[in-house]
Amino acid sequence: MIVWVFPVFAAFGISVAYFLKVRLSGSDLNYARFYFCLAFNGVFVVPYMDILQNNDFLFLGHRPEIISEHPFIGWIAFSCIFIHLFALPVKRKIKGWFSRK
Are 47 and 10 in contact (CB under 8 A)? Predict the structure, then answer.
């Protein structure tokens, strides 16, 4: 049961990060907006790194048996680090996933 909470948490973080990227990107991007998104992504990347390096989960503590029984958790954490790296706003306007134009 607890194993499926982590992918939901990761999907939520990625969705919000890309929503912020779409909303805050554009010619009016400033340092405050950029650093806000950087801090938001950092809040998610640091627990992913703890999972990979130390088998420490945010609310569960040190649980190496989760990674040994479910190795996909480590792969999800590894891929989410890179996904969050690409979720930073840029100076050009970005269309949303479901926009028509």
Answer: no
Q: Do residues 57 and 51 make contact, with C-beta atoms less than 8 angstroms apart?
A: yes
What are the structure tokens assigned to 94, written together? 């970005």
**Residue of 10, 5, 8, 81 lying closest to 46 (CA atoms):** 81
Phi-psi region of 64 (alpha: psi -120 to 50; beta: other; left: phi over 0): alpha
Residues contacting 24, CB < 8 A, separation 6+: 33, 34, 36, 37, 89
Q: Is the pLDDT of residue 16 over 80?
A: yes
Would you give the end-to-end CA distance of the chain in angstroms? 41
Q: What is the mean pLDDT of residues 57-81?
A: 85
